[in-house]
């Protein structure tokens, strides 16, 4: 365990979670035809990310020993994951939830472990579609599923 790296990573993902919660406050409170406000889902995800990050930081601080020093590779991997998360946030609106989440999860799964490409693609697709279906179907919320140009293309057919 690398205490310093865990504290840095926990702090970085805590900041991303705080961004999600703060940015979701700017989303309009009601959405036509939605029983769940559009801010609910990002607020829950951001809060969960903050909670998990706090657990990582607490565990790092509570452990009495630091075993190994963080390598440049570890910090580089963290930076790439944070950059991927920022790109995901930026692509969310233009690509829609399903496509942007699929791309993000596929990248992260392959970045963390470059084995079983087909398996990680299937899990990414399944998760993206399942969460979208649950949010829209069960909670009756609104998420942009696909880019507007793609939706318009299929609407004309």
Folded structure, characterized:
The chain has helices spanning 3-24, 40-62, 72-112, 117-138, 148-156. The protein is an all-alpha fold and 157 residues long. The chain has two domains: 1-70; 96-157, no CATH class. The model has no long low-confidence stretch (mean pLDDT 80).
Indicate the low-confidence ranges by residue numbers: none
Helix content: over 70%
Task: Tell me the distance between the termini.
Answer: 55 Å
Strand content: under 5%
What pattern of helices and strands is seen along the backbone? HHHHH
Oligomer: single chain
**Largest β-sheet summary:** none
**What's the pLDDT, averaged over the residues?**
80
How would you classify the helix and strand content by structural class?
mainly alpha
Give the count of structural domains.
2
Query: Count of DSSP helices?
Result: 5
Choose one word for the global shape: globular
């Amino acid at each position: 365990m690398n205490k310093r790296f865990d504290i840095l990573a926990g702090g970085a993902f805590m900041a991303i979670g705080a961004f999600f919660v703060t940015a979701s406050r700017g989303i309009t409170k009601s959405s036509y035809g939605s029983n769940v406000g559009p801010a609910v889902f990002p607020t829950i995800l951001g809060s969960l990310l903050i909670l998990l990050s706090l657990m990582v930081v607490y565990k790092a601080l509570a452990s009495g020993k630091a075993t190994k020093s963080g390598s440049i590779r570890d910090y580089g991997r963290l930076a790439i994951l944070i950059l991927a998360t920022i790109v995901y946030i930026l692509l969310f609106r233009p690509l829609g939830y399903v496509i942007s989440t699929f791309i993000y999860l596929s990248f992260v799964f392959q970045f963390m472990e470059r084995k079983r490409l087909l398996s990680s693609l299937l899990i990414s697709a399944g998760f993206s579609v399942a969460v979208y279906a649950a949010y829209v179907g069960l909670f009756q919320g609104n998420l942009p599923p696909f880019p507007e140009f793609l939706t318009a293309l299929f609407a004309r057919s």
